[in-house]
Each structure stands twice: as C-alpha cells, then as structure tokens.
Amino acid sequence: MDKILFEEMRMQIQQEDFFMYNKLKQIAAAALFAASVMATTVQAQEIQAMAPEAAASVNGPGVIYVKFGGPGMETALDAAPEGTVELCQGPGSAVSGQGAGGGAVQGWTEEDLYVLAHVICGEAQNCPDDEQRFIGSVVLNRRNSGRYPGTIKGVVFQPGQYSCTRDGNYYRTPTEANWANARWLLENGSVLPGNVVFQSGGRQGKGVYLRTGYHYYCY
C-alpha cells in the first residue's frame, strides 16, 4: 500500500513539474516576444526620427514596414538592422500619393468598379489601404500596357494570372475599404509606375520595384 501511494505521489509530482515547466516556457516565450516587439518599436521610432516624412510601423517582432519619402531616407536605411525593414519606396509610389502609372480611367463603368473591388478583395481583403491600392494599380498598369488585355475584366480573368479567380476568393463580399480603394484608383489612376505589372509572393520580371509585408511588386 505504501509503495502504491509512493508511486502515485511521484507521478503527481512529475505531472506538476511538467505543468510548471510548460508554464515557465510560455512565460519566457511571451517575455521574449514582448521584448522583441519593444526593440522593433524602438528601431521604428529611430527610423521615423531620422526620416520624418517616412511612415515606419511595426509589422511584428523584428519586422518594420517603412514607407519612405523625403530627406533622411538614406541615413535611415543605413541605420536599420539588415533584414528587418520591408520597403515601400520609389518615385510615384503611394508614399507620394501621386498616380504614376496613368491618370483616371476614362469612361470607367460599374462593371470595372465591381471587378476591381473584387480582385482587391480576393488578393488583399483586409490589408492596409496602400496594399489594396498596389494590387489594383497592377491591374490598371496591365490594362494600359498593351501586353495584356485592354480591359480590367480581361486582365483579372486572363488565364493563369489571378489565383483568387480560381480559388473562390474573388467572389467574397468586398469590404467598404475594398470598394473605396477600387473607386479611388479608377478616379485617380495607378499609384505605381506604369511598368510595374507583376504582383506576387516572390520576384518576377526584371526587378523588384517594392516589397511589402504581403507581396513583391516587380517590373
């Protein structure tokens, strides 16, 4: 009887030790995560201080999403730890707020608005406004390039191009932001240079114009 009781007590202690070990691991992991986020936040603040016109935000531990613009950009780039900054930069980008790939879409239709809002939804439904406008800008740049179909619908449904038309995400209900960004693009034009016609999870074409926390935008 004493032996059985001893074994039960030993097993209980082992279970409690295991529980405590896991609890300590969770606490330590949470502390490391918080410390990493805090360190990244400090780095973002330092970048912002060096380049006041830039918009630096924390995308997660060790990742800073920076929209560069104005003086101080090169200094901020040199000071940023390698591999921590995801850039959105270049003349005519959304940083400047200027349409660079062409002006407003003349004579756009409700179908154009519908298709553009749905492809933005399918590719970046809940992403920030900038990302949504990048997505839509690639569509407009393709429409205007002469190398792709000459309509928004033709570009979006060109075989093998937009996966959201095949996996069903295109048919989700667009958010108010999706509709608003699609309309803005039709009324103002692309926020990307006209030669930026690739948007994907990796490098394409001849080079990378910008990389965000979501996609590469290439020419």
UniProtKB/TrEMBL annotation:
Coiled coil: none annotated. Keywords: Signal. It comes from the Bacteria. InterPro entries: Cell_wall_hydrolase_SleB (IPR011105), SleB_dom1 (IPR042047). One of its GO terms (molecular function) is hydrolase activity. Residues 1-44 form the signal peptide. Residues 129-189 form the Cell wall hydrolase SleB domain. It holds the Pfam family Hydrolase_2. This is Cell wall hydrolase SleB domain-containing protein. It comes from [Clostridium] asparagiforme DSM 15981.
